[in-house]
Design goal:
two-stranded antiparallel sheet; elongated; DNA-binding; about 60% helix; Transcription Regulator spoIIAA; 14 helices
DNA sequence: TTTCGGTGCGCAACACCTTT
DNA sequence: AAAGGTGTTGCGCACCGAAA
């Protein structure tokens, strides 16, 4: 049994799984599920047979792995060797380097199973979609009279972000529990796998699962906000362009144009990224001002507000935030720093659209 | 200590290309 | 023409070292 030195070779299941899905090696496991499944079955059949675990057999199985994987990818694209093929060659190189014994091939099979199963779970997991977003926005804007409350627009976005995160985390976790439960039982009944090996393998699977699930959550979070903002505008009868528009390196999530003026919106979880790229470019975008909505206050600093102010744009923050308490009295920032509950009202006033 | 600029990562969306 | 593969771009997040 291995002693746990931190040597990467001790964590082969993890690294096989990692390389099989890594984008630098072509996200192979995402595109070639079937090939991998068949490969695993073939290797499994041979491993059953104890006569086929000598060195020569391992070498033959390594060649089989190489051929199966490289042959599954087109060699050329647009008259040249394809990038994908090169990535696949790199993948095979890394996999084969880690295989020295029949046991390594056993670990490779476990990784193939884990990576394919993880993809399936992430694909089929109920995602936080349009229906859920609408439900939360409606719920947040709800007033006793039945008409939506414009002062709650920012809270609605915040709730969508917050609930979206929680929802997806929960939805991703349940099928993982099922899978891990099943895998633990399977490994425990295998005489070739020691008790500590079970923990090592399972932790590798979970570690890799969460890494992928986390990336997936980050990547969908932006869309959730765009959809939420558009739906909020709909609720108040504000005609917004909807689709995000790209202007080279910057993206404006939404636009509202009215008889009195036009606004481009940038709605992000944090202000940190790229917001400066939007500054001084109103003419290019074709709007009078860019308004920022930042859900998290941690990096809304005096300097950043000043930059937005110098640009003649605005940022909306909640009244109960530190940022509002600290800077709302600052006359220099009065035009720029605005309370979140005025957001809808301000949009209507600035653009002169009808609203409701 | 905070802010800034830069890097790496995987995903989703999109544009483009090839095969059927 | 449709379907599917390939390549590119931008996003949000984590992390790091340098500058303020």
């Amino acid at each position: 049994m291995a002693d746990y030195s931190g040597d990467p070779s001790e964590y082969k299941v993890y690294w096989f799984a990692r390389d099989l899905i890594a984008s630098s090696y072509g996200s192979y496991a995402k595109k070639e599920k079937e090939t991998l499944r068949e490969l695993s079955v073939q290797l499994g059949n041979e491993l059953e047979d104890d006569r086929l675990t000598d060195e020569a057999s391992v070498d033959r199985q390594k060649r089989f792995i190489r051929d199966t994987i490289t042959d599954s990818v087109n060699r050329t694209y647009a008259g040249d060797i394809s990038k994908r093929y090169l990535q696949t060659e790199d993948l095979v190189e890394r996999i084969l380097r880690r295989i020295e014994s029949a046991n390594d091939i056993r670990e490779f099979r476990i990784a193939v199973d884990a990576v394919v199963r993880t993809s399936e779970i992430l694909e089929t997991t109920a995602s936080f979609g349009r229906d859920e977003i609408i439900e939360i926005v409606d719920e947040t804007l709800q007033t006793q009279s039945g008409t939506p409350d414009p002062a709650r627009a920012y809270d609605a976005l915040f709730n969508v972000d917050f609930e979206g995160e929680a929802y997806q985390l929960g939805a991703q976790r349940e099928p993982l529990i099922d899978y891990i439960h099943e895998k633990i039982s399977e490994l425990q009944t295998d005489p070739k796998t020691g008790k500590r090996e079970v923990a090592r393998i399972i932790s590798g699977i979970i570690q890799e699962y969460e890494r992928r699930a986390g990336q997936s959550r980050a990547s969908t979070a932006g869309n959730v906000l765009e959809t939420g903002l558009q739906y909020i505008f709909n609720q108040f009868g504000i005609p917004a362009t909807g689709d995000p528009a790209h202007f080279g390196d910057l993206e404006i999530d939404n636009m509202v144009e009215g008889p009195k003026g036009s606004i481009g919106f940038s709605c992000k979880r944090t202000l940190r990224e790229r917001f400066r790229q939007s500054l001084s470019r109103e003419a290019e975008i074709g709007v009078d001002e860019v308004w920022f909505v930042s859900l998290l206050m941690a990096d809304v600093s005096r300097e950043k507000i000043q930059d937005i102010s110098n640009d003649g744009s605005r940022i909306y923050v909640p009244r109960d935030s530190f940022v509002w308490n600290r800077y709302s009295d600052d006359s220099e920032l009065a035009y720029t720093l605005r309370p979140a509950d005025q957001f809808i009202e301000d949009v209507v006033e600035f653009t002169g659209v009808e609203g409701q």
